[in-house]
Structure formats: structure tokens, C-alpha cells
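It would be a great kindness if you could assist me with a short task in structural biology. Thank you for your consideration; the sequence and its C-alpha cells are set out here.
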Amino acid sequence: MASAQRRAQPLAELLPSLIKDLKKTSQPTRESIDRVWRGAAGKEAAEHSWATQLSRGKLVVDVENSGWMYLLNLKRPQLMERLKKSLGVDKIKELVFRMGEVRDAKG
């Protein structure tokens, strides 16, 4: 018996609805914050970093090592612009990188 398969959707199709959901909620979940982070950071950077919390406008991102921390700090202005566009200007005021354990895409 064949089970119905769901078609994988490109991120470009999913991101608008995720962003809309995040804008509606006052306290987004860690998973939803990380999805937006991954969209803003890009695939390669997202493999080496993980958004852990958003509180009072401060987004905290754990980074795998000092090399990635350095690169992400260099890209901070562009990342902030993308995050503000995605989350809304009032939702994010600060982006903080810290060394931490990065989880795989499955959690």
C-alpha cells in the first residue's frame, strides 16, 4: 500500500509563512527563531551556528568555533538587515554570537 508523500517545499516558499507566524507571536519558539536565523544566515553559516533565544530584542546565536564567530561578526550588518526584514524592526535590536555546541539539522 503506497502512502501519500508530501512534497518537499523550497525554503523560499516556506519562509514567508514562517515569518508571518513569528510576527504574530509575542514569544516565538526556539525552533521558529532558528528557522528564521537559518534563512538569514544562509545554508553554510547555518550549518555552523544555531539561534538559541530571542529576548527583549536580543537574538543569541551559538557558533561552532572562533572562525565562524569571526565571519559572522563581519557579516553582522547584513544579517541584522535580513533579520529585521524577516522579524520586523521592533523584534530584533541586537545580535549576539557566543561559542556553543551546534546541533545538527534534526535537533
